[in-house]
Input
Amino acid sequence: MVALDVRAVQKALRSEGLDGWLLYDFHGSNPIAATLAGLNDGAHMTTRRWFYLIPAAAEPHGLVHAIERHNLDGLPGAKAVYTTREQLEAGLTQLLHGVTRLAMEYSPDCAIPYLSRVDAGTAESVRRRGVEIVSSGDLVQQFEATWGEAQLASHSKASAALHRIKDRAFAAVTASLRSRQRLNEYDVQQQMVRWFDEEGLVSDSPPVVAIGANAGNPHYLPTADAARPIVVDEVLLLDLWGKLREAGAVFADITWVGVTGNTVPAEPARAFRAVVEARDAAIALVEESARNDRDLRGWQVDRAARAVLEQAGYANHVLHRTGHSLGENVHGNGVHLDDFETHDDRRVLPGAGFTIEPGLYFETFGVRTEINMFRTHHEAMVTGPRQMEIIVLGD
Output
């Protein structure tokens, strides 16, 4: 559970010229609000609509249904109770009295779908009361998506474990090639799943193990019934993500590439050099902005990386954004590095953890390099090793 610091929220609201932040949820439709309110712990039933308004300069107020009247008891301020729809209407009118401009989990034109959690009807109901709704994106980042010292430590441990698993997987492939043992993508994946357990990691999915043409599919996952054999002279891509088995732990997420031969073919080598240069351009931009305390938006980082790929002639082989937020879920609620799939204009704030993972995808192979970064107030750091060239896995 996130400990919601109401006074800090109010200070942020005043600095943004907002009258308040309205948290709203119905039946889990807004997991961001549920997390902030402490209702995502499995101990609360949230089958009815609830609202919680944090004003910029007054005590918060809540509005809850009678059968779930105690759900917001852990938060400061008075709570009004409703049962009928007429009481809900009157309660919302009273809750928003005097408010003209507030933040909600809303994104204009749904530009950032990860943030856009408030349904159109509820937004209409709020606006009907003369209230302007603006995006809570940077508030969510500041009060739900930032890492503290404990989370950074958990991430660092998870990252080190992932790199050990990656090394073991590449070593197993090399050994199988030398011994002429038959392995397929699924075999390698399932070995990695067992190593996750040994390392004390959990994940929402088994890792990606993709060889040859399957590496050209960014979200390919092998199955027991459909997996290609590990054969010589093919590109092999590993994408793995996980976190520690402890409350509040955050994810690490990495991608590395090898080739099952003694030399790296020219085309994969050239493509991989391009994604390394794109990755490092993005890293340099984040580092420079943190060092100079300069405002930086997610879309700007994506554009810097993608410009490198486009200048190298690979514009038609880019299929996804440059990076995503990391949190207690592998795709967190903070800023994404994206001006490709969406236009993410949220700031890269202190406390943000995220991936940088440019990739290029072709009919017969794909390459991607993925590292993780964490930004403090005055610096930004890469939290693990950087792959500089494709690893040779030949016999």
